[in-house]
């Protein structure tokens, strides 16, 4: 906050308030500068009363005072040539380190708390004006047609001094003060409405300021970041929209939020998602975007959100802690209620299935255009698990279309395309490398332009956009002034981690922490934080105590060092190394195999959320190893997980969360999935024996999933036993409550028919398939959108069963537009009859 003085035509200095939005750029109200023609220069000074009485010259660089009162604001630039002693706050001095200013927009109609600080006339004293803070509320539904915010407060205010002034009010001088909702700049105070009871001020909305291109350009030029509007009320639920500014280490350049590499190559997918958002279908719609880690899901979603915001949408990423499924109360989503078009993105959807169901339960009642985009590594049980949701929510989620995001550069892409993409990545990364703390100075741009591309660009590893960018970053660092020792053929993750380890070593050995630990111990500590995480300091301390190699008495210092290493989410004490691929590689290589196995005490002492996170991280690492052709590290990681499960005995909540997160049809994880679902089924069997009404539905689901896992590893007889039991349970449940349990019964019958066929019991397989198809016909008649895909799949299965018995299908699929057959891939079954072979 700064104090402004503007000289009026009569020579009197008018006092106002301003807010620093950049080191030398002040936001204030335009009327503070007087009413003189814009061509006539205004004499303005700026001071920071908290630092003394010095006044610094400034000039107006942008001003608007609309006749309709919509915008009354100005930007003042402190004159660098004359303000030699000017000193902005420490938080503004290093633009590389500080987070960008957040700009807010109120999206609902409920009153919202707001704070205003400035220099009103009622605080005038012998030494000048003192600060006054007003706590009030904005009622967004008030004066909406006038396009302004109204701040109301019942706080008592000081009386106006006896000095006569025809235009003064108690609040004169607070004009130009920032309207702050938390840390979001939401508006600029412009007028005292002189309420007869309490206080009522009006303000220009930040929304209208950012809509002005000249204003936006000045903010971008001075701060280095384009101002982005974010919703105010759900701010505690959403990730900041601005890019990551804290480039503490080389790996930070690879985070999706840093947007270091120019978005390219996803025009078709982006247009498809944009059409889905703007389409004329249901008011509320859900879509799932899947793909392995590093495929570009998060980056694509960020680009979609940015483009929608330009067209008036509210577009944001939900803050979702991947380990939050096993603890904590359900969040209140009423803050998301808005009449504006809304896109909400949820990353790691497979790790928060309960949260997804709660979110759908709330959003599906909206009367305004709302889109929910779920990002996940794979389809998995998280999408189809019926537990914890009403039938409408289950139907919406089960029927949500799935888009699998393919490689950015297909294996058949021309070598020139890959070379261009590699060169672009190297050039973009080189522009930000000078901003990375601790890196030696180098001409990174010249290095990017002259270093040769790798000879294996055509390798399938570079199908992944992240792998290509990791390769470019590693090449830049290795061609720079301080490379690490690296053998040819070493994984790119290992090379980057060696560079990242210098950041770990530098911070640990700094005077702030004074941790003179061996590098191996530092690496193990970072891997522990990646794998297990910590929600608070107490959990962090308990975890650190179980890291081998730490000297006595160092636990608190290590916990605090890990806290400072990477920015944590609001509900976490430890942040994590990013991107995920790098973190998962580091965790798996440090905590499994080679004599560095995770100590048993780490597993047994971990909370449920920590166990969930560790199993998920290491399972993903095993898949990544397999995808990269590194068979042995993946096998070692899975063996280590198996050993941990032998000693840990995870809770029901942990088993549910992890099994839901594992991707379907993963050959690599099939043995692990079998182990986890078998343990989960055993837990539910014990619970169901004591309380069948409460736990038999969950037991049937676990058995159904277990049968699939048995089939994945070729143990078909055991799989058949499991699905027979699941079907029997669901048949009993459906007889008592068909509306609730018939869909689950049909699903089990369909799986049962497949398992019967695989063990040669074809007649029984046909009977089960016919019963499943009959149920789906009934369900489709009342809800075609939800059940037509299931009916099509069941009909396809039925055709196989008939074929097994030497029968040629000739059936009729009665669909008005033929969409059922074409959409679900059963066109060959349309309009045929049945006859014996």
Blueprint of the fold:
Blueprint: E1 2-7, E2 13-22, E3 25-28, E4 44-47, E5 56-65, E6 72-78, H1 90-93, E7 102-105, E8 112-118, E9 124-125, E10 128-129, E11 132-138, E12 149-153, E13 178-181, E14 184-192, E15 199-205, H2 206-210, H3 213-223, E16 229-231, H4 267-278, E17 284-290, H5 297-309, E18 314-317, E19 342-346, H6 353-363, E20 370-376, H7 380-384, H8 391-398, E21 402-404, H9 415-432, H10 444-450, H11 465-479, H12 492-508, H13 519-532, H14 537-544, H15 555-565, H16 580-591, H17 600-604, H18 608-627, H19 631-648, H20 652-661, H21 670-690, H22 692-712, H23 716-736, H24 738-758, H25 762-782, H26 784-804, E22 807-808, H27 819-824, E23 835-836
Overall pLDDT level: 85
In total, the number of strands is 23
Largest sheet: 8 strands, mixed
Overall geometric form: globular
What features would you describe in this structure?
Helices cover 43% and strands 14% of the residues. The protein contains 27 helices and 23 strands. Strand 2 (13-22) and strand 3 form a beta hairpin. Helix 9 packs antiparallel against helix 10, helix 22 runs parallel beside helix 24 and helix 25 packs antiparallel against helix 26 (784-804). The longest helix has 21 residues, at 670-690.
Provide tags for this entry:
single chain, six-stranded antiparallel β-barrel, 837 residues, globular, disordered C terminus, 14% strand, alpha+beta
Would you kindly provide a brief summary of this structure?
This protein is α+β, with helices and mostly antiparallel strands and 837 residues long. 43% of the residues lie in helices and 14% in strands. The longest helix has 21 residues, at 670-690.
